[in-house]
Amino acid sequence: MTGCKSDKSEYDKMVEFGQKYTDAWNSKVPEKMASFYAEDGSLTVNNGTPAVGRKQLAETANSYMEAFPDLELTMDSLTKGNGTYRYYWTFRGTNTGPNGTGNKVDFSGFEEWTMNEQGLVQKSIGTYDAEEYNKQLNGN
After folding, report:
1. Domain boundaries in the chain?
2. Under CATH, to which class is 9-138 assigned?
3. Distance set, CA 62 to CA 7, 26, 67, 139 (Å)
């Protein structure tokens, strides 16, 4: 039977997962983004301090959602690696949140996901060009 959900490849399911993850970011509800992670899942961005657990993950998402009330995340692509997936994204928004600069940002990056057996993100390593982001954010 073609066309059934069960006929989707693992990669197709992950593309769908990535699109739903993108929608969760765009929902402006931080807990929705965190729900894509395992209860003890982690997100590390640019070798910073990892956000561990859904509460910290939601707090991380919320910091971007508050700083950029008009944020729009797009999924650019998804690639499969050796036991991981790379979710490539573009982030656009205007920093009009508390103490915002009023400047627009438009930058891209990726998260490398290690999934758990339940199909949730166990570990995500996020990377983007922080120098370019800060230049746009501060208008330098």
Report:
1. 9-138
2. alpha beta
3. 36, 11, 8, 23
| pTM score | 0.92
Q: How many Cβ atoms from other residues are within 10 Å of residue 31's Cβ?
A: 14
140 pLDDT band (50/70/90 cuts)? confident
Per-residue b or e along 103-134, where b marks 16 or more CB atoms closer than 10 Å to that residue's CB: eebebebbbbbbbeeeeebebbbbebeeeebe
Contact present, 110 and 88 (Cβ < 8 Å) = yes
Among residues 64, 76, 75, which one has the least CA distance to residue 28? 64
DSSP state letter for 82 = S
